[in-house]
Specification:
This protein has 313 residues and is of the alpha/beta class. Helix content is 39%, strand content 14%. It folds into two domains: 12-136 and 292-303, Aspartate/ornithine carbamoyltransferase (Rossmann fold, 3-Layer(aba) Sandwich), CATH 3.40.50.1370; 138-289, 3-Layer(aba) Sandwich (Rossmann fold). It binds phosphoric acid mono(formamide)ester (CP).
Length: 313
Amino acid sequence: MGALTTEHLLNIEDLNVEDIHTVLDTALSFKEVNERTIKKLPTLRGRTVINLFLEPSTRTRTSFEIAAKRLSADAINMSPAASATVKGESLVDTAKTLDAMDCDLLVIRHRYAGAPYIMSQNMRAHIINGGDGKHQHPTQALLDLFTIRERFGGFEGLKVGIVGDIAHSRVFGSLAPALKLLGASVTAIAPATLLPARPDLLGAGYIHDLDEVLGHLDVVYLLRIQKERIDQAPFPSLREYARLYGINRDRLGRMKKDAILMHPGPVNRGVELTFEAVDTAANLLLYQVNAGVAVRMALMYLLLGGDRDGTLA
Ligand code: CP
């Protein structure tokens, strides 16, 4: 067993509280490395990392590639067009093929929930889930936790409202249980058509009216409407949705003084956030992106054999 109690990161539940803090502490060290002029460490020299992204991504895929390269691993990127899956190769056969090339760590994004698990059953490599369908996105949760911990110093007693498309969100699926585990209270805020049947199973209460709770929240976390996963319109129009759940100047003014706005990206400007609200929140939204590189470096380092105390080799 390495520095974490798990060999893979398939779901956020693979990590216990101590693991999560180990990842965040290690990421803090890597964040300092990333602020240097020379950002490269020899730590993973000779190790092979494959990024298999079979769904679009800007932030996650790029930050995993940067993370691997900053740790001196050999990083290979595979997209749908460049993989034999377009010729009909099954996921199991893809896994066995990549395994035969002695890959050390695989990051996978796939439209099907459970795809990372299938890879873990058919490869010797460590597997990281880079987002599977509407199931989980654990590295997004970790970079969000990093951002929240840096802002508030901890999680105990924080009130977090997660607003929007809860039903189709893999971000919610990882972030809500992690926040609950760490002592925060989580409220899902959405119309009934965008809530899962049992948000409580993911550690959250729920409410339909954003304005009823907005002024009590420490973190207001906006989710993107996942148009690509929605069959039937869950609300009359985007304009109506934005009126009820979007953050605009008025709602910005009614948030707690020290509250923060977060969003995993990409943002639908004018829907989850007005253009003005995006610009108000821009520093923190980009801080999340910046933290994503350090958190992914930390995970690679810890899964591939780093020290538990977060000391960098
Ligand atoms: N937040 C997130 O997963 O963004 P990408 O789809 O750009 O990776």
